[in-house]
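Revision sheet: structure tokens.
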Amino acid sequence: MLEYTLRTYQSPTRLVQRLGAIRELGTEASLLGIRRPLLVSDPGVKAAGLLDTALEVLRGADCEPIVFDRVRANPGVELVDAGAAEYRAQGCDGLVAIGGGSSIDTAKGIGVVAAHDGSILEYEWGHSPIHKRIPPLIAVPTTAGTGSEVTLWAVITDPKRKIKFNVGGTPNIASWVAVIDPELTIKLPAPVTAGTGMDALAHAVECYTMSYHQPFTDAVALMAMEYVARYLRVAFSQAANVEARYHMSAAAMLAGLAYGTDSAGAAHAMSQTAGGVHDAPHGALTARLLGPVMEYNHAGEPERFARMAAAFGLDVRGATVWHAAEMAVDYVHQLTVDVEIPSLEELGFSRDEIPMLADKAAADPQSIGNPRDVDAAAYKRIYARAFDLGRSRTPHLNEDRR
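Predicted:
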């Protein structure tokens, strides 16, 4: 149905993509006028030798990088504020983030504080506006999942409130350049490949079905789904398969672009709030919740869920819209099993936490765009289903979910 609701899209991020693209890092820094970047990373990237590669390339371009490699999963307020203090103390003139979504989100947060002062807490979505663009930031993802290299958001943990909060929704927080080198993901362990890949799928699915979707975001979301459906199992099974890694890196980027300036839906409302309660990997947690959320949501947008079934490569010829929509749900259940996503118990959660987790999810603003009305009672049902599926590790196919 045609409508008069205003839709806008803007992406200020320059994309630099190829096998070996990290060798372009020095050139891109020079083009941005960066001479003394704060290099934001984590111990895992350092141990893998990727940090040394970045330092070599940057120094070869006459840069003097300052290393800030204290990032951990689910970065917190204190870490971001400490990074901003280091940025100022060292007289830095730009940022380079190399790592997964945590490193890139940390760098974005550092950039916000460096440009505006104060603490990153002040820039939680809906609070103080981000009215200045962050300093030049080059994002170099080493996982294929979050898409943070191209999104207009950063997710930060507040341990005092035991929540994660969003910062952004504006091009002012975006990376200036994303250097996408699929070869950097080849050494990813299978569980990380699975969790991050399913996170990319969740971005695509939720952005395609959320109420804010528009033609551009539809297009990139569907392509991301096609790539994940074709290549995630291969990347999970064959760590060094370059073709699979290439397409999964593309899927993560495309799914990140599918966000636009808006948010996702119930799966991310659940995973982000739950991730503030227990320090679980965001990708695996989102993956465990995606199938149950799709079960709940497909009644709200059956035509879109039916279209997703085709993107997954399923034969929907002769199927009714409702049957095709259910096929898409069943596909994601099976994919969750195939890539061995942990149960909620294995991720540190217990059933007696469901009421608390449901209340937190219902209060998250990402519930607003969900394709089906969702409240705390509905979230309790979805969480219960997620616990059940994780326990059995097998999907209940073709049952009446309505």
